Amino acid sequence: MFPLLETALAFALIMLTASLFVSAVVQVIINVGRYRSLVLIHMLRSLIHGFRAFHRDPDVVDPATGRPAHDALSRNEACEKRFAHEVLADPVLHARSAKLVYGSDPEQLARLVEYIDADDLITIAAGAAVTVDGDGRERLLPSRWVSCSQGDSGAAKRYATIERFSAYVRRWFPTLEGTASQTFKQRARQLTLLVSMMLVVLFNFDGFQVLARLHQNGAARAQVVAQADTVMTSATRLGERPAGAPDELPDTTLEHFGLEAQKTATLLDEANLGIGWQESWIVKRFSAYRGDILAAPPTSLEILRDTLFWLTGLAFSCGMLSLGAPFWVTTFSRLIQLRNEVQHRKRQESASGVKTESGALAHPARERAVARPS
Hints:
The protein is mainly alpha-helical. It contains 17 helices and two strands. The protein has a two-stranded antiparallel ribbon. A hairpin with a 7-residue loop joins strand 1 and strand 2 (139-140). The radius of gyration is 32 Å and the shape is elongated. The two termini are 48 Å apart.
């Protein structure tokens, strides 16, 4: 049982190491591409569009049919973008350094904000509201946020009061926030799959071959498992938690990415598990088939079988890596607990056997008395 368990442990650790590399790459792409900011901007655009549709704005909903107006999304894109950008460009959401770098460009400043809650949104909208009566009791959203017309020249939309907007935000913000969160996670999963595929092809990461070599080579298993503490420390630093734990998005820097790249390459290379193109078994099979090396050449049917098996191994690796680092953190932790429990029980059984044997040797006269016939 121990070789199988040690093989599973070593394989889980290798997959965790590769998954951390994939996670670091994904987080760098997300940070550089401002994915969270883009999702937030889209959420605010959806919110203002929904607010206008809810109150049957004729620019959004056809008054005769009650259905979305023709080309409503494209015609209202400019004002809804203005709403999202101006809200997220509010000075209270930015450090002074950001204001100095980007000046008063709302579009650039909006891409720096990754989160806003309902109360902050209402407060910012109220600060930008326009008073339309003498006593200041009726305050409307700026017309440039709810009108297709450019600037503030559009006619005032009497439905777009701060009170109605606040009520709509408090009612629908949690739903839109949850939808935006799911959208971001879906994009992150797609990126993870794409980066996993690139890693598998780059390293020729054949999961079946890795499993076979780990099972056959006890020294390789021990060498991989010896890196467990280092890999788990990296997982903690990158914010990767076991599956089911509260989400905590890591802020992976280029330095962290470089460390993970170096660590992944070192572990995969030193373990000598056939990862990489230089020592790849499929390359050797093709070389033998073409007669480039002195080896028995495989037949066409054998080379086809080997190619399909190799491609299946690559697909298996992609699937395993796409499960994500949290899955492999959980799996490795559980395998460690299982190994410790098995070792503990084996020690208990050994100790129990020693006690039984020593007890029998301590009372030879009693055994002879029991064995002597009456």
